[in-house]
Specification:
Layout: E1 3-6, H1 19-33, H2 39-53, H3 56-64, H4 68-75, H5 88-95, E2 101-104, H6 109-119, E3 127-129, H7 142-152, E4 159-163, H8 166-174, E5 178-182, E6 193-195, H9 198-209
Parallel strand pairs: 1-2, 1-4, 2-3, 4-5, 5-6
Helix pairs in contact: 2-3, 5-9
Length: 222
């Protein structure tokens, strides 16, 4: 293993913090106030765009001509510190890793930087790969994964992906990465580990870097 790729929202912090609910409100407001979409159409369009493109942004770019940078600035203009605080347990586990860690997110770099700062772990990450890495094409499309691997000059087999999304992990798995599912999900088949928190994910990866087998021992809830 030569790199650990952590998703950001609802992975490095628990979904129960409901930070994304603040972003969710901003997305709806952007669609209405900036893109000029009638309020009655917003929910159905968001569902359609998520199904077709993986994120609302791609639908707005393709069908409404929005400026993606304007969108990213607008929807991530939230008070991260109102929902997040320093996570000493996560920091301790990240400090134990000798493998470089990176954020790989469908959000923006600015948002990722604010989240990492609020959690007190910004210095534990060697870099951030955001939605811009493949021209605003999101996970789980393979293009952003391939671009990240190219920029790191690594193969999929060299990496571990930590995520709260089954679909995003499936793409990582198809590219040869080890996979860690984070969150209170039903037990999946085929991922290398499932854990409740990011700090537990880092602990599992720490065991792997020490030579613990990747399959079998860590399967299921940790």
């Amino acid at each position: 293993m030569q790199a650990v790729l952590f998703d950001l929202d609802n992975t490095l912090y628990a979904a129960e913090r409901e930070l994304f609910s603040l972003i969710d409100v901003r997305i709806n407001r952007y669609m209405e106030d900036v893109a000029g979409i009638p309020a009655a159409n917003v929910d159905s369009l968001r569902r359609n765009y998520w199904e077709a493109y993986g994120v609302t942004l791609q639908g707005l770019i393709r069908h409404h001509g929005v400026d993606p940078e304007d969108y990213l600035d607008y929807v991530h203009d939230v008070d991260v510190t109102s929902r997040l605080h320093a996570d000493p347990a996560l920091r301790k586990q990240l400090e134990s890793l000798t493998i470089p860690c990176y954020v790989f997110t469908n959000g923006s770099r600015g948002h990722a930087e604010r989240v990492l700062a609020a959690l007190g772990i910004a210095d534990r990450f060697a870099g951030i790969f955001d939605i811009r890495v493949a021209a605003y094409l999101p996970k789980p499309f393979p293009e952003p994964y391939r671009q990240v691997l190219m920029e790191l000059d690594l193969a999929g087999e060299d990496c571990v992906m930590v995520e709260d999304s089954h679909n995003n992990l499936l793409t990582a798995q198809q590219l040869g990465m080890r996979t860690v599912l984070v969150g209170p999900h039903a037990r999946p088949n085929g991922f290398d580990a499932q854990v409740a928190t990011a700090s537990q994910a880092a602990a599992v990866i720490g065991g792997w870097q020490g030579g613990t087998p990747a399959t079998g021992t860590h399967k299921g809830i940790v």
